[in-house]
Amino acid sequence: xxxxxxxxxxxxxxxxxxxxxxxxxxxxxxxxxxxxxxxxxxxxxxxxxxxxxxxxxxxxxxxxxxxxxxxxxxxxxxxxxxxxxxxxxxxxxxxxxxxxxxxxxxxxxxxxxxxxxxxxxxxxxxxxxxxxxxxxxxxxxxxxxxxxxx
Length: 150
Fold this sequence. Notes:
By secondary structure, this protein is an alpha/beta fold. The chain has helices spanning 32-44, 61-78, 87-93, and strands at residues 5-9, 14-19, 22-27, 51-55, 82-85, 98-105, 111-119, 122-125, 130-132, 143-145.
């Protein structure tokens, strides 16, 4: 039987929780800390997961802290593993196979670029992350994902 994993994310513009075939979303920004707890309760519907996966950034500092604190509390309370996942890994895992560039807006005048080779939904980092600024040479990849992809 496949493990039942609770997934939590507050790193980018949406707050989300998923468990099995159930997922729920709310807008990001103000209220993320309260929303992620409500979404987790909603998707769990009284069930206990086998593990908790949570995005650990890059992304919203407050959002990442809120999701990580909740994930750690659930994992410690239930005695289950906590699985950290970078925002880039999560984005690349959902992209088609091939060369993937996760582009994440830092909201500080640059874009975090994370390079992956994705095969069957399993991303492998292929280069060190960089902070890209307008005017720098444009990076190339078969697939560009993330909130700064455009």
